[in-house]
Design brief:
The chain is mainly β. 11% of the residues lie in helices and 45% in strands. It has ten helices and 45 strands. The strands form seven sheets. It has an 18-stranded antiparallel β-sheet that branches. A 13-stranded mixed β-sheet has the order 16-17-18-19-20-21-22-9-12-13-23-34-35, with helices on both faces. Strands 1, 4, 7 and 8 form a four-stranded mixed β-sheet that branches. A hairpin with a 3-residue loop joins strand 26 (451-453) and strand 27. It is globular and about 100 Å long. The termini are far apart.
Length: 821
């Protein structure tokens, strides 16, 4: 027993061996957070926490020179002789005194412009010095909230994991990640292996502090993490920024550092404000202290984002490399006002790594075994930034709460409160949960399932569903039944379904469904029920055309290999025509006249577009996401796509077994789509779709190839799937078909350069669309519009002027859209 006790003491003592500890403050005694602390002539070190405390690990006693560096403060060196551990070293930093004495200011040239031009000219040279490297990466995420609302839309918001005090304020998210990263510049590749990860109060411990997402490279032209903000040293930065040399100072190595203020040319453009620090003659970034707003990043809920970076000189490669970074955020959404900080530390750089052909693959993130199960002893030896007492308390509190909240007694008590039936539940819906056994039974209310069309009149749906989670890796099953009632038809239409999913890796899923439903003639569903309800009731424009289908269907899907998706379904259905049963509308009779439910002849109210029949449909499809990157978490695979290559989808649809043989058919459909980031020049997207029948036959109308049209002034759909001015059922074929959608959003690349207009921060959008069918004239559209419209930070609207042509027929019009997708 004594020997065991001795070993424990020896192990604990080994945790503190090799540490220099202390506190960093300013002259007023206030703590300074995220000060870089490292040994002289190295790029390995630590940073201070929010309380100014730091811990620097060293190998053995001896003489050391410790450097303390923080943007805006004078860098200092402390020469110390360490004889025992822990070694106490407190320091006080003074604000940097900048001066313009070192620079001769010319009235002909802004000296700041000269400096920025030199940085831009030397970007490639400087970044080539560390074009390949490995490093250790540490991140910490902390989110606080103050005066959190107790309810949201009448529902309790809870206590956010137990982190709130009596004023409903406190930490609602705390996480840490330690990983090993590998980087290659040409071609650009990144790989991360997470060694340890934890989230306060959570079992799985998977944080989302990815190193690649956090790698904000100001040498890039645009900062994608910040929604494409223009870098202050971008190739076309002078179109967005003005620069002012605030002053200069010398760093610890005698290098002259220029402090430059960023002045946006337009307040709401995609730019930063703040200061950037440049090393004279090296023309490299020394540090950055930047800020941006929600209007600038086009994320309305964001009030402010702050970015601070610190670089250190790596003697072995004669380059300045990133060693520390923080992102502070402040958000307001629906009465919630969270704020916090993500902190990052880079250390142990190796600028001459040995990469093999297996180093970089499409798997860009992996976890070491048991990475989410490391104990506090492991973290205490690993963590480069010490926890604050507030963070220590949060871990302890939520770890103890976590055990309690997993108990059956606690979960049952929570369910007892949540399972109470509310006054509005008959309309909105109700769910009865058994959280301990991961089961729930739901009643789906009619409030959001009610609408109007001229076939059914007012209709509504309600139903019941059951869900059971079988494990934490994505295995579950659910089943449900819904019943739709049409008041004008006086008819009930029930449907049912059963679905089982096996995992979160391949996402294998199997579904059985059946019943009676009323799909649109165009299987691509071009018209939202909400759009049709509004247009019918207020304007007497009943665009939607439907038929009745009695069906039974099975469907199976999975990702069979990374980037290769497979899906198939088999359906047998009886399809019957439907007719208008009502001409009710809020609008007066003389406003418009309702059309028939026959898409082939809107004036024919007695004959249908097809005759009743039975038919089976086999659909086999596969999708190829070429070069798809993915993240491998312990319990799931997360696909992040790859914009360098298009996504290709292929489908074969066979209709057979009909009681009318001429309705059987074979159809092939291909889709190609891509979203390309053009950096500071905006974003380009395209979608090409083509189809062909194996044999031209007189098939049912709903089985023909159809385009997605639009006859609404304010449609709610995806721009690259539909046409702007095309009538809904004007284009269809039983032969060959192709459509193309192109769009380029220039963001601020063009309008940002036009005086006065650039202050509005509108984005120019240009597009083209074309439709070809073997038996019809081509249909084309060209559009020019403005995006990023709105008020203040809320800019999600767009308007386009569209010119369309069909043979000799020309049409023009305006289309308004909300950028909801």
């Amino acid at each position: 027993m004594k020997s065991v006790f001795f070993l424990i003491l020896l192990f604990i003592s080994s945790i503190t061996i090799g540490q220099i500890q202390g506190k960093i403050t300013d002259k007023k005694g206030d703590p300074l957070s995220f000060v870089s602390v490292y040994l002289n002539k190295t790029v390995t070190g630590t940073t201070s926490n929010d309380n100014g405390d730091y811990v620097l690990d060293i190998n053995k006693p001896g003489k050391y020179t410790v450097v303390f560096q923080f943007i805006g403060f004078t860098t200092i060196k402390k020469e110390i002789s360490v004889t025992s551990f822990p070694y106490k070293l407190d320091v006080t930093l003074e604000e940097e005194a900048v001066s313009l004495k070192e620079i001769t200011v010319s009235t002909k040239d802004n000296p700041a412009n000269r400096i920025i031009r030199n940085v831009i000219a030397n970007k490639e040279k400087n970044t080539n010095k560390y074009d390949n490297y490995t490093a250790k990466f540490y991140s910490r995420g902390l989110t606080r909230i103050k005066d959190a609302p107790e309810k949201f839309f009448g529902q309790s918001t809870g206590d956010f994991g137990g982190g709130l005090d009596s004023t409903r304020s406190g930490i609602i998210y705390l996480s840490e990640t330690f990983s090993k990263i590998s980087f290659q510049k040409k071609p650009k590749k990144f790989k991360e292996k997470i060694v340890a990860s934890k989230v306060s109060g959570q079992d799985n411990g998977v944080s989302f502090n990815r190193a690649e997402d956090s790698n904000i490279d100001l040498y890039e032209n645009s900062i994608e993490v910040f929604n494409g903000l223009v870098s202050p040293v971008s190739g076309n930065a002078f179109s967005y920024y003005r620069y002012k040399l605030v002053g200069t100072f010398y760093d610890k190595n005698g290098k002259l550092i220029n402090k430059i203020k960023l002045i946006p040319k337009r307040s709401n453009d995609r730019v930063f404000e703040g200061h950037i620090y440049i090393v004279e003659n090296d023309w490299a970034i020394y540090g950055a202290d930047l800020i941006t707003t929600g209007a600038q990043v086009n994320i309305p809920v964001v009030n402010k984002l702050k970015l601070k970076q610190g670089y250190n000189y790596a003697d072995e490669i004669d380059a300045w490399v990133l060693i520390s970074q923080t992102i502070d955020f402040d958000i307001s959404i629906f009465g919630f006002k969270p704020n916090g900080k993500f902190s990052y530390v880079y250390s142990d750089y190796d600028f001459n790594p040995t990469f093999t052909e297996n180093t970089f693959t499409n798997e860009v993130l992996t976890f070491e075994e048991n990475a989410t199960k490391k104990d506090s002893v492991f973290w205490n030896t690993l963590r480069p930034v010490p926890l604050t007492q507030e963070e220590v308390t949060d871990y302890q509190l939520k770890d103890s709460i976590k055990l309690l909240r997993k108990s059956k007694k606690y979960l049952d008590s929570v369910d007892a409160k949540g399972n109470k039936f509310g006054f509005l539940d008959p309309l909105t819906g109700y769910t009865f949960r058994n959280s301990y056994e991961n089961r729930s039974f739901s009643y789906n209310g009619p409030l959001l399932q009610t609408g109007f069309n001229t076939v059914q009149g007012f209709y509504t749906s309600a139903g019941f569903s059951y869900f059971e989670q079988l494990n934490e890796k994505g295995k579950w099953w659910n089943a449900g039944v819904d019943v739709n009632y049409a008041f004008s038809e006086k008819k009930w239409r029930p449907t049912f379904y059963f679905t089982k999913k096996w995992n979160n890796i391949s996402r294998t899923r199997f579904t059985i469904s059946g019943g009676i439903e009323t799909p649109q003639f165009n299987g691509r569903q071009p018209i939202l029920n909400l759009n049709n309800t509004i247009s019918s009731l207020f304007y007497r424009l009943n665009y939607i055309k439907i038929y009745e289908k009695n069906f039974a269907k099975v469907r199976y899907s999975e990702e069979i290999k990374n980037g290769i998706y497979f899906a198939t379904s088999l359906e047998y259905a009886k399809r019957a025509p439907l007719f208008n049963t009502t001409d009710y509308s809020f609008a007066k009779q003389d406003v418009n006249g309702f059309t028939s439910n026959n898409p082939l002849d809107p004036t024919d109210f007695t004959n249908a577009a097809f005759t009743e029949h039975n038919i089976a449909t086999l659909n086999i499809g596969t999708t190829f996401v070429i070069g798809q990157k993915y993240l491998s978490y312990p319990d799931r695979k997360f696909n992040i796509g790859e914009s360098k290559f298009p996504t290709i989808s292929l489908n074969y649809i066979k209709r057979f077994g009909s009681d009318k043989s001429e309705l059987n058919s074979d159809l092939f459909i291909a889709n190609i789509r891509q979203d390309l980031n053009a950096g500071n020049f905006g974003r380009f997207q395209y979608h090409i779709r083509a189809g062909a029948f194996l044999k031209k036959k007189d098939i049912a109308f709903m089985d023909k190839l159809q385009a997605n049209g639009n006859q609404l002034l304010f449609p709610i759909d995806r721009e690259l799937n539909s046409f702007n001015l095309l009538e809904y059922y004007k284009y269809y074929t039983n032969d060959k078909y192709a459509e193309m959608h192109l769009e380029h959003n220039f963001r601020g690349a063009i309008l940002g350069k036009i005086p006065l207009l650039n202050k509005l921060n509108f984005h120019l959008v240009a597009g083209g669309k074309a439709l070809f069918m073997a038996d019809k004239h081509p249909y084309t559209e060209y559009s020019l519009g403005l995006a990023n419209l709105g008020f203040g930070k809320w800019r999600f609207l767009r308007v386009e002027y569209v010119s369309a042509r069909y043979g000799a027929i020309k049409e023009r019009g305006l289309v308004f859209r909300a950028s909801l997708f």
